[in-house]
Structures are given as C-alpha cells and as structure tokens.
C-alpha cells in the first residue's frame, strides 16, 4: 500500500498536484529524493532537494520566425545549503562530444555564453534565482533546432529537464512552369517547385477555371508534376499549385494555352521573317550612316579646301 501511495504521489507531483485525500494513517517513505507523508488522511509529497517542476511536451515544434518559451521552474528545499547555479546547454547528439553551454546563472548574475546570433534573441523569462529559469527565444531560426537542457544545482541537490525544439521552415513561394510546350494532342507537364521549406512538402494542383482537372491528367503530390496527356483546347485555363508542410503553405498559378502544329509553324515563320526584316533595317541604317559620314569628311579635305580658295580668288 505504501508503494501504491508513493506512485500516486509522484504522479501528482509531476503534474503539479501536491495533495491527495487517502483513508490511511501515518506513513513515511523516502525514495527518489521525494518524501511521502500521509497524516490524517492527507498524502503530501515533500521534495527533499531542489526539483525542476516544469511540465509540458518533451518536443516542441515551431515555425521559423515565431517565438518559444522553454520552461524551467523549480523549487528549493531547506536541506539545500550550497550556492545556486543554473545552466542551459545544447545537448550534443554525439554522445562522445560535450554539451555546449549557452547560458549560466551564478552568484546573482546571468552569463550568456552561446553563439552571438542566438544570444541576441534569447532572454530570461523571470528571475533565475527565484525559481524561474525559463528562457524565451524570438524570432526563431532553423539553426535553433536542438535539444536543450536546463540544469539546476544547489548542493547537495541537483535536477534537470530536457526539451527538444524543432524549428520548421515554411515553404517558399513556388515557381510554376510547363514542359514539352502546349501543342494540341501532345503530352505536357505542368511543374511546381518550392526552393525552401522543411520536408515533407506536399504539392496539389487544382484548376481555377474550367472545372476539375482534365480526365487525362495525373499528378504527383511529392514532386509537384501534373502530367496531361492528349492536350486539347478544352484543357486551357488557369491552374493553381499549392505547396504545404506542417507550418505553412504557398501557391503559384499558370495560365495554360493550346495551339495546333500549324499555328506553331506559322508562329515560327513569323518570328523568322520579323527577325530578318529587323536585320535588313539595321543594315540599311548602318549604310546610311556611313554615307553621311563620308560626305561630311570629304567636304573638309585640306587639299580640296585650298583649291576651293584659289578658285574663289
């Protein structure tokens, strides 16, 4: 029965409840740095050392640009007589490497020891010396993804809490384009691609105008490709691609057209003829410019100028 009461009491302690009505007499048990006292039907958990009492998820997911509070509240015990020290560290994923200390509180002073880029965005929520060593980070960056550990030391007591922060990047605005042209009767591929964003990215094509996707169309949610076979005039219109992940979404549009092979040949021929006419016009302008320059310089030739003077005399 003592063990049952202890387990219940520890569970209640973890969620912040310190009392429980129990129909038992006096029971005293000490284990795992906790004391269970049951007097007059009341079971009370008493911490016999410094204890971190923050609760919450062990993994926190946030979007880049948002903010987060990493909780680390604690209680002290009269039996703790040493100097209070609080440390925040980045836990190394490599067990052979040391954790990286980013913030320390000792002797009433807070020391920021981590990367300056992170330290400029990190601050203490409360007074680390008065039971609240929580930290606040804003705005979040993808590089902030890590496991953070808060360690509270007041000899002989010591306790800690770890929390994993995952910073997710929203998708960037995707680019929409078409492969294989837009010729009637051909197989075309509409493509959609976002250059940034935390995986997995999911793509979805919809048709904004003209109803649902063509019956000959198939799309890949992973690559953002929309393949349309046997393209026709009825498949033209505005198509929208939306890319999403856990923390955001973005979209782009493409206006799909359709033309026949004859029209394609006409367009090519027109482009060639236009280019040739432009070239001929340019050559004509160059020829006229050369002629004007030659006429201008010849009128000021020194010998001809002297002959003209003699003739006038």
Short structural description:
With 313 residues, the protein is of the alpha+beta class. It is built from four helices and 22 strands.
List keywords for this structure.
313 residues; alpha+beta; Immunoglobulin-like; 22 strands; disordered N terminus; membrane; signal; Ig-like domain-containing protein
Describe this entry's structure for a reader.
It is built from 4 helices and 22 strands. The protein is an alpha+beta fold. The chain has 3 domains: 2-48, no CATH class; 52-167, Immunoglobulin-like (Sandwich), CATH 2.60.40; 175-261, Immunoglobulins (Immunoglobulin-like, Sandwich), CATH 2.60.40.10. The protein has a 6-stranded mixed β-sheet, with no helix packed on it. A 4-stranded antiparallel β-sheet has the order 1-4-3-2, covered by helices on one side. It has a 4-stranded antiparallel β-sheet with strand order 16-17-20-19, with no helix packed on it. Strand 14 and strand 15 (157-168) form a beta hairpin. The termini are far apart.
């Amino acid at each position: 029965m003592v063990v049952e009461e202890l387990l219940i009491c520890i569970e209640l302690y973890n969620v912040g409840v310190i009392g429980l009505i129990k129909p038992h007499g006096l029971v005293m048990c000490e284990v795992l740095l906790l004391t269970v006292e049951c007097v007059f039907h009341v079971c009370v958990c008493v911490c016999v050392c410094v204890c971190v009492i923050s609760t919450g998820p062990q993994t926190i997911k946030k979007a880049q640009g948002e903010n987060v509070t990493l909780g680390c509240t604690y209680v002290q015990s009269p039996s703790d007589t040493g100097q209070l020290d609080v440390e925040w560290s980045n836990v190394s994923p490599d067990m052979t490497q040391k954790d990286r200390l980013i913030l320390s509180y000792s002797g009433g002073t807070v020391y920021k020891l981590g990367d300056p880029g992170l330290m400029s965005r990190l601050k203490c929520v409360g007074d680390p010396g008065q039971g609240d060593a929580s930290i606040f980070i804003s705005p979040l960056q993808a590089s902030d993804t890590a496991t953070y550990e808060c360690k509270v030391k007041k000899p002989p007591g010591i306790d800690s809490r770890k929390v994993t922060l995952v910073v997710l990047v929203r998708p960037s605005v995707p680019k929409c384009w078409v492969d294989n042209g837009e010729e009637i009767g051909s197989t075309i591929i509409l493509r959609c691609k976002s250059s940034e964003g935390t995986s997995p990215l999911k793509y979805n094509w919809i048709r904004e105008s003209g109803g649902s996707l063509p019956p000959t169309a198939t799309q890949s949610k992973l690559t953002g490709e929309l393949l349309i076979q046997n393209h026709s005039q009825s498949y033209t219109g505005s198509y929208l691609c939306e890319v999403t992940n856990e923390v955001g979404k973005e979209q782009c549009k493409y206006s799909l057209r359709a033309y026949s092979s004859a029209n394609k040949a006409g367009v090519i021929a027109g482009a060639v003829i236009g280019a040739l006419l432009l070239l001929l016009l340019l050559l004509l302008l160059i020829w006229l410019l050369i002629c004007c320059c030659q006429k201008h310089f010849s009128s000021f030739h020194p010998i001809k100028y002297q002959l003209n003077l003699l003739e006038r005399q």
